[in-house]
Design goal:
This is Alpha/beta fold hydrolase. GO terms for molecular function: hydrolase activity. Keywords: Hydrolase. Helices cover 37% and strands 18% of the residues. The protein has helices at 49-52, 86-100, 112-123, 144-155, 159-169, 174-180, 185-194, 224-233, 245-248, 252-266, and strands at 13-18, 24-30, 36-40, 63-67, 105-110, 127-133, 211-217, 236-240. Strand 1 and strand 2 (24-30) form a beta hairpin. The chain is globular and about 45 Å long. The structure holds ligand MQW. Residues 42-45, 111-112, 115, 134-135, 140, 142-143, 146-147, 150, 154, 163, 166, 188, 192, 195, 199, 245-246 line the site of ligand MQW.
Length: 273
């Protein structure tokens, strides 16, 4: 669908590719003279967050590719927790990289989408840069009970209310709260339980010249894993003027402006001499 407000004005071209397990992946690409920038949304989101957060308007020169992860937006439904394992998401993103057939991409992901972007960077040499918005690359303990509780909460009839109240209470911006109500509750429950399949693992750098950027709130109470990423992966750390990661979502467009400058300074996109 040529839904220009979806891409902040430029002509959006829909795409459809198939993940390794056959799941259809749909999204849009927006032409641009610069680097190919693949956008990966978080758990209770879809590809519309990029226009609605204002991020898309901040990268006018990038060639933008935005997918709906499996179970979200217009991509194929999955239904099982195993089908939402982190490696399935890695396959989703890599299927889109295969589909566009370019030699080099930058990735930008929000929250769990950032975790996925870092994981793709770790296994795919086509990734020249990976930006992770409010998620780090270190090993985490997945709190099984809290995850199960949350899966039960989000897959039930009150699932959207649970998330809307949770995010409103934590000061999330409208685009993030609106996104929750677009996600199918059954897929949300499966995606939440899917965190138990591999999302705890730390990620490595995929190639020595890869540029990794971790982004979080300057008030983030748990900065340790972000500093660990600086040391262990040589990642850069960008801080946004917000007290928490959820509140940092209101500054997603600010991060986009820095991404645009970084891509332009990289000077390696086509048409940049
Ligand atoms: C606050 C609450 C509404 C929120 N629930 C969601 O939003 C969605 C919808 C339903 C499930 N949801 C998850 O996310 C899973 N639930 C959680 N995940 C933990 C977590 O830390 N997740 C990281 C990413 C990550 C994942 C796996 C491994 C490493 C990192 C993260 O970034 N969390 C922030 C919130 C924050 O930083 O405080 C957000 N994530 C959302 C997203 O990824 O789209 C947008 S905000 C893991 C360790 C179990 C926690 C936990 C209490 C169960 N609940 C949430 O987080």
């Amino acid at each position: 669908m040529r839904d220009s407000d979806e891409t902040g004005g430029g002509p959006a071209v829909p795409f459809e590719f198939f993940s390794r397990d056959g799941t259809p992946l749909r999204g849009f690409s927006r032409p641009g003279p610069g680097e190919a920038l693949v956008l990966v949304h978080g758990v209770a989101m879809d590809r519309r967050i990029w226009a609605e957060s204002g991020f898309l308007d901040t990268v006018p020169d990038a060639r933008v590719i935005a997918l709906d992860l499996r179970g979200r937006g217009e991509s194929g439904r999955v239904g099982t927790a195993e089908g939402h394992a982190v490696d399935r998401y890695v396959e989703d993103v890599r299927a889109v990289l295969d589909g566009f057939g370019l030699a080099r991409y930058s990735l930008f992901g929000t929250y769990f989408g950032g975790r996925i972007a870092l994981r793709v960077a770790g296994v795919d040499a086509r990734v020249a840069r990976a930006f992770s918005f409010c998620a780090h690359a270190e090993r985490v303990e997945i709190p099984d009970e809290a995850v199960e509780e949350e899966a039960v909460a989000v897959e039930g009839p009150g699932g959207h209310t649970y998330l809307r109240e949770h995010f409103t209470g934590r000061g999330a911006p409208p685009w993030m709260i609106d996104a929750c109500s677009r996600v199918d509750p059954a897929e949300l429950g499966a995606a939440t339980r899917g965190l138990r399949y591999g999302s705890e693992q730390q990620t490595e750098r995929g190639r020595p010249d890869q540029e990794l950027v971790l982004i979080t709130a300057e008030g983030d109470p748990d900065m340790a894993p972000f500093h660990a990423g600086e040391r262990r992966l040589g990642a850069r750390l960008w801080l946004l003027p917000a007290p928490t990661r959820v509140r940092a979502a209101a500054h997603l467009a600010d991060a986009g402006h820095r991404v645009a400058k970084t891509l332009a300074a990289g000077g390696t996109g086509p048409g940049v001499v």
